[in-house]
Write a structure and sequence with these properties.
The protein is of the alpha+beta class. It contains twelve helices and 18 strands. Strands 10, 11, 12, 13, 14, 15, 16, 17 and 18 form a nine-stranded antiparallel beta sheet that branches. A five-stranded parallel beta sheet has the order 3-2-1-4-5, with helices on both faces. Strand 10 and strand 11 (about 210) form a beta hairpin.
């Protein structure tokens, strides 16, 4: 079972380990020689994964049984050629991967083709177009890049002066995949936002969907994402959330973990976005579920059985670097680490160094408890202690 992992970021390390524990040989591919997952993979390759010819050559050389995409910047043509060859399976699938790189295509699939409820939305290809949208739609307005993971490069516009900075931030979030279009949507009044992790597997009876308990989340500030599981929902809202998630995941096809982002007001559920790989809000499952989001993804890829059993309520806080932070690996003070881990039912993941990039994951604080309230209180204590490691 040879797996080529395309993309080797901080979270990819956990995915490499999940595959290896199931007996797979993992070749981690990334444009950077010191990518985090290179340290733990069986083999590391430095490849310009946005170059179709270079990526296709690497796939042909490795001859993997599975090509697993774990990045938001990849050459779709090379993946399509590999899948058409018949000897390599592309996960989550070429179509799902392509739409995950195109928020405009994803939103049009959800709203126009599937008829899923969404907030009113528009697309803009320039500051002038975004200004016109803002004048038409009014404020507040949420602006997101058409390319990128959920939450990255996102802004809330409150007045006309916010338009140009939001445009710049959204366009810059494309990173290695330059783009000049943004999604703008009306701010709908909601009670909370959830990630509904949906696992699509293949079996003798055909594709099957498995749902994890809903994960609540919020951006504490620009540097911290808080998440918790389970998010309390009404029976009607949970049923609507599963219906929305099932429809979008079935339309995307493929297999693996799909993180469906939803906005909830009472019993009403709105589709917001979907990620086709493990991502930040799912990190809470490292402690809340019998199988974490990474283990679920690895099992689904390899055609193995899965379960989404939650073993304890829990919470997580992900801390990010900023472009202003100094480069280098923060020195971990054993006393600080001891203080963080002295919190009952706590755990941490220290993910790596700063490199001058904005939104690089520095680490994750984790905690469980008898209920979500206790877990969230504990994880704040853990995170507060760890911040002394990460402060410049």
């Amino acid at each position: 079972m040879r797996v080529m992992l395309v993309g080797s970021g901080e979270l990819s390390r956990e995915l490499v380990l999940a595959f290896q524990r199931l007996g797979a040989e993992v070749v981690a591919v990334d444009p950077y020689a010191d990518a985090p997952a290179h340290d733990v993979a069986d083999e590391a390759l430095v490849v310009t994964i946005t170059d179709p010819e270079e990526l296709a050559a690497a796939i042909a050389r490795v001859e993997p049984a599975y090509v697993v995409v774990d990045t938001n910047a990849v050459a779709i043509d090379a993946l399509r050629a590999a899948a058409d060859g018949g000897t390599t399976q592309v996960v989550p699938g070429v179509y799902a991967t392509q739409l995950s790189l195109d928020r405009e295509g994803m939103r049009r699939l959800a709203a126009d083709e599937l008829g899923l409820p969404t907030a009113p939305f528009w697309f803009a290809g320039s500051v002038e177009e975004l200004t016109a949208v803002a004048e038409h739609a009014g404020f507040p307005l949420v602006v997101k890049p058409v390319i990128g993971v959920p939450g990255q490069g996102q802004s809330v516009l409150l007045r006309p002066d916010d338009v140009e900075p939001a445009w710049v931030r959204a366009v810059a979030a494309g990173g290695r995949v330059p783009h000049n279009r943004v999604l703008a949507e009306t701010v709908v009044e909601i009670d909370y936002a959830v990630s509904l992790l949906t696992v699509r597997t293949d079996g003798p009876a055909g594709p099957t969907l498995h749902f994890c308990e809903p994960i609540g989340h919020r951006q504490v500030d620009g540097g911290v994402l808080e998440s918790w599981q389970p998010q309390e929902m009404t029976v009607a809202a949970l049923g609507a959330a599963k219906s929305v998630a099932a429809r979008i995941v079935r339309a995307l096809g493929g297999r693996g973990v799909f993180g469906v982002e939803l906005l909830v007001r009472g019993d009403e559920v709105y589709f917001s976005d979907v990620s086709v790989r493990p991502y930040d809000s799912g990190l809470v499952t490292l402690r809340t579920q019998r199988l974490s989001v990474f283990e679920l993804h690895a099992r689904a890829v390899l055609g193995l059985s899965v379960d989404t059993i939650m073993i304890s309520p829990g919470a997580a806080e992900v801390t990010y670097s900023t472009a202003e932070d100094p480069s280098g690996t923060p020195e971990v003070n054993p006393a600080v680490l001891a203080e963080a881990l002295a919190v009952p039912e706590s755990d941490v993941r220290l993910l790596g160094r700063r490199d001058g990039s904005a939104r690089l994951r520095l680490g994750v604080a984790l905690a469980t408890g008898a209920d979500v309230t206790v877990a969230r209180d504990r994880v704040r204590q853990v995170s507060t202690a760890l911040h002394r490691v990460w402060q410049p």
